From TrEMBL:
This is DUF808 domain-containing protein. The chain crosses the membrane at residues 75-93, 174-197, 218-241, 291-312. InterPro entries: YedI. Pfam families: DUF808. Keywords: Membrane, Transmembrane, Transmembrane helix. It comes from the Bacteria. GO terms for cellular component: plasma membrane.
């Protein structure tokens, strides 16, 4: 009997440790996911455009195919790469994180620049969409998965950097896996709801009466504005998160004046409004981080147009498939 009691006690102890580990994974995953907010919102804002123009019956299958590609990107390619990086070259995490943050700033600033100075985009023969619906779908899905790879790389790098130091390899792997699956489910679940919202609204208008029909009509009318708002929020989040990542990276590398200046401004604002110190402090920090991100992104636009884009096209012409 004493042996049985001891065994039960050991089982109870193991269960407590397992529960604590699960709780730690959940807590770290939530924090890591929150850090990746900018890339996540942009992912949700960008993806619906890939189903634009398709028959309603193909919208959810296309979103599902992109979601599967996103899981492959995160779990099969990026998760092992992140673990190898954290195990053998942790010093590279900050520079890579800053590179991802700079890319977010560039993307956000480019959207702001195009909104302020609209211009027609050049369409090359290679990028002309095929007329065949099957080929068009394949092209759209492939393009979406490529775009997702960049955003997923940012998400996984941000999540990796958010894991507290000293965590074992298994814990890091568990946190990254939870982040990868939960963010993918959240983003593409939201995308599926967004792309079908107008269809659901039309169904209510056609098949229901009274307040349900009015709700359907409101839903249909609200979707264009909602998509526009989502784009604006995604752009602001990219600039905020990207600027914050670069500023933190500069501080880590010993260039802490910009970060310290913003933190000092945030503290002064919090002291000026003690009734809402936390909210005001966060808001000031986010706005200043976003302004820094916008300024950095605007500086990167001419660099990209004059140097990076021509170099990329040259590399593709040299090493790409001539066919």
């Amino acid at each position: 009997m004493s042996g049985l009691i001891a065994l039960l006690d050991d089982v109870a102890g193991i269960a407590k440790v397992a529960a604590a580990s699960v709780d730690d994974v959940a807590g770290m995953s939530a924090k890591a996911g929150a850090k990746a907010a900018g890339a996540v919102i942009d992912d949700a804002a960008v993806t619906p455009k890939y189903v634009h123009g398709f028959d309603a019956s193909r919208e959810i299958p296309i979103v599902w195919r992109i979601a599967r590609g996103s899981v492959f990107n995160k779990v099969v390619i990026l998760l092992p790469a992140a673990l190898i990086l954290s195990q053998f070259a942790p010093w590279l995490i900050t520079p890579l994180l800053m590179l991802g943050g700079a890319y977010l700033c560039f993307e956000g600033a480019e959207k702001v620049w195009h909104a302020l100075v609209p211009h027609a985009e050049h369409v090359s023969p290679e990028t002309t969409e095929p007329d065949d619906p099957t080929h068009l779908e394949e092209s759209k899905v492939a393009g979406a998965i490529k775009t997702d790879f960049i955003l997923s790389a940012e998400i996984m790098t941000i999540a990796l950097a958010a894991i507290p130091p000293g965590q074992g390899l298994a814990m890091r792997a568990a946190v990254l896996l939870v982040v990868a699956l939960s963010i993918t489910a959240a983003v593409y679940g939201a995308v599926a709801l967004i792309v079908k919202a107008d269809d659901y609204g039309l169904a209510l208008v056609r098949t229901r009466g009274g307040w349900l029909r009015a709700a359907g009509r409101t839903l249909v009318k609200a979707m264009p504005g909602f998509m526009q708002a989502l784009t604006v929020i995604g752009t602001a989040a990219m600039l905020w998160v990207g600027g914050n990542i670069v500023l933190h990276g500069l501080e880590t590398l010993g260039l802490g004046l910009p970060y310290e200046t913003i933190r000092h401004c945030s503290e002064l604002a919090s002291e000026a409004v003690p009734q809402a110190a936390a909210v005001v402090g966060w808001l000031v920090t986010a706005v200043l981080d976003g302004i820094f991100g916008l300024a950095l992104g605007l500086l990167l636009i001419p660099l990209s147009n004059a140097v990076l884009a021509p170099a990329w096209r040259r590399a593709r012409s040299l090493f790409g498939n001539p066919a």
